Amino acid sequence: MTRRFLFLLGSSRPDGNTELLARRAAEQLPHGTEQRWINLAEHPLPDFEDLRHDSDHVRPREGAAAVLLDATLAATDVVIASPLYWYSVSAHTKRYLDHWAGWLRVPGLDFKATMAGRTLWGVTALAHEEQEVADPLVGTLRNSAAYMGMRFGGVLLGNGSKPGDVLRDTEALTRAKTFFAQEAPLARFPYEEGGADVRDVTP
Ligand SMILES: Cc1cc2nc3c(=O)[nH]c(=O)nc-3n(C[C@H](O)[C@H](O)[C@H](O)COP(=O)(O)O)c2cc1C
């Protein structure tokens, strides 16, 4: 089956370290793998409005939400390429993920069932040298994948502050070469490590 990678760029500036690192990793994708790149800043989503318990969400048919929903549904692999902002994903990225909660409630869309078994990946750049400060971002993506029944390929981390810095992080560039070749197991919540059942909690 042809894999279709959707790269969602979440930085608030163009040509940043996160995108540079993501493009290095994407260069290694096998020939024939489809790639679509969308800069979330160029497709501004409205603030998410939580109608989950009031009325049905309606499938967006135009604008940024329609573009992003259709691109998400078409992807076998969704790559969240977000810089580390305040130890988590950027606001552009978070707003996109919040819209998933609405798409889950669009009648007939079966968003969760459609995304189940597909793969979520992360790429991030951060200024901090110690990578564990990115744990909240990693947890956000991993737990979101677990909720959706998706696979999780992990997060490719690179160091840098100003644009281009990440190209001096030789260890990150080495990891980028094989990142997408890694196995992506079904995501699990931390409490499931021992094999407990998935509990159906929000969103
Ligand atoms: C709003 C904002 C918040 C940031 N928060 C963090 C942070 O929590 N930890 C960190 O190591 N770097 C932080 N940084 C630095 C960026 O992660 C770093 O500059 C990164 O290279 C930006 O990625 P980009 O070049 O793809 O935009 C922050 C930068 C901004 C603008």
Give the gist of this structure.
This protein has 203 residues and is α/β, with parallel strands linked by helices. The chain is built from 6 helices and 5 strands, in the order βαβαβααβαβα. This is Flavodoxin.
What would you note in describing this structure?
This is Flavodoxin. Keywords: Flavoprotein, FMN. It holds the Pfam family FMN_red. Residues 5-110 form the NADPH-dependent FMN reductase-like domain. The structure is a single chain. The chain has six helices and five strands, in the order βαβαβααβαβα. The protein has helices at 17-26, 63-74, 91-103, 111-115, 135-148, 170-178; strands spanning 4-9, 34-39, 77-81, 119-126, 151-159. The two termini are 30 Å apart. It has a single domain (4-192), classed as 3-Layer(aba) Sandwich (Rossmann fold), CATH 3.40.50.360. The protein has 203 residues and is an alpha/beta fold. The mean pLDDT is 94. Residues 11, 13, 16-19, 83-87, 125-128, 133, 160-161, 163 line the site of flavin mononucleotide. Flavin mononucleotide is lined by residues 11, 13, 16-19, 83-87, 125-128, 133, 160-161, 163.
Salient structural properties:
single chain, 203 residues, alpha/beta, Rossmann fold, 6 helices, 17% strand, binds flavin mononucleotide, Flavodoxin, FMN_Rdtase-like_dom, FMN
